[in-house]
Design brief:
mainly beta, about 40% strand, about 5% helix, Tachylectin-2, Chain A, globular, 4-stranded antiparallel β-sheet
């Protein structure tokens, strides 16, 4: 999610300690799975704030083609009637393999300005759901912050097994209660979170990442197994995306594995990360070059190292913007082609 370029540039990345990480017991060689034969991507396209579906060419994570003849699969009808940053969330727990959700930012920038979108922006997230990945229904806007928030941006979610709930997270900034019109100076942008089991009712939101005065947005996770995780986020102050690793859970100790000031790339946002279907231990990362041609693919065969390299992208579409990718089975690929091909 791009902010105004005129935002003040504050001091750089807040350094975190660098330390050796022992992954020997964490089983992170994920996840070659012969049942997964493709990838479904959900994105928005620049000034077109709807949800567009793309499907990989076979099991090639670096080659995608548009479904529905390049037209949107989901057009929002509520709120600002614009959705950005769509994130596709697989059902987990009792809903595993039975339900999927798409959540996203309620923002149509054509109807506002970047300044107004941060002062009096939507405090709700879009939600759609599906039982087959092809038909999406039950559109709703769920308010997750109170009137002190200036906006709710780039929501996404991960299943927290310890809570048997989805941990939903987003970026917000806040204004004092003495400034109800949000005309003054806000807080730095921080990552917030709440729990839900149905994307209808949410727990009270709390801070998840607050690195004042640094602005942090666009958080995503990759589960590594055995309570270990990688997370990716944008330092909106420095305009960089970086990664951190925890071997002690979602609320454990997080460390930048490549060094306390290491970044993956600059001038990017909207990280989207997912495992390769065919090569164990290989992962893919999309970074949105928002001032250029949108998403470009990166890859790593050692996620714990924090080192990513640009992928071959001759077959990668241009101008895809902040979204997400879901590995899919052969039956799901055929159903998507039949419905939207």
């Amino acid at each position: 999610m791009r902010l105004l370029s005129a935002l003040a540039i504050l001091p750089g990345v807040l350094a975190l300690p660098s330390q050796p990480l022992d992954f020997s017991s964490y089983g992170i060689s994920s996840r070659a799975d012969p049942s997964l034969t493709g990838y479904l991507g959900v994105f928005f396209l620049g000034d077109k704030p709807s949800v567009y579906f793309y499907l990989s060419n076979g099991n090639n994570a670096n080659s995608m083609v548009a479904l529905n003849k390049g037209q949107p699969v989901i057009n929002p009808t509520k709120g600002t009637t614009g959705v950005r940053d769509p994130s596709i969330i697989p059902g987990s727990g009792a809903d595993a393999g039975k339900k999927w959700y798409i959540i996203g930012t309620d923002l149509n920038i054509a109807k506002t300005t970047w300044d107004a979108a941060q002062r009096k922006g939507s405090r709700s997230i879009f939600v759609w759901e599906s039982t087959d990945l092809t038909t999406w229904t039950n559109e709703r806007l769920i308010s997750v912050e109170d009137a002190t928030a200036g906006m709710v941006w780039a929501p996404s979610a991960i299943w927290d097994e310890s809570k048997s709930s989805y941990l939903v997270h987003w970026a917000s900034k806040f204004y004092p209660t003495s400034d109800p019109n949000h005309t003054g100076s806000p807080s730095s942008i921080r990552i917030r979170y709440a729990y839900t089991t149905d994307f209808k009712t949410f727990s009270a939101p709390q801070d998840y990442i607050n690195r004042t005065p640094t602005n942090i947005i666009d958080l995503e996770f990759l589960a590594l197994g055995n309570n270990a995780y990688a997370r990716f986020m944008k330092d909106e102050t420095a305009k960089t995306v970086f990664t951190e690793i925890s071997t002690t859970g979602l609320f454990g100790t997080w460390t930048r594995p490549a060094g306390s000031n290491a970044v993956i790339a600059s001038g990017v946002e909207g990280p989207a990360v997912y495992w390769d279907n065919a090569v164990a231990g290989k992962a893919h990362l999309l970074l949105d070059f928002y001032g250029s041609d949108g998403y470009r693919p990166y890859e790593a065969t050692d996620v714990k190292s924090g080192k990513w390299q640009a992928s071959e992208r001759s077959a990668w579409p241009k101008n895809l913007r902040h979204g997400s990718v879901l590995p899919v089975t052969g039956a799901q690929v055929e159903a998507l082609k039949k419905k939207w091909g």
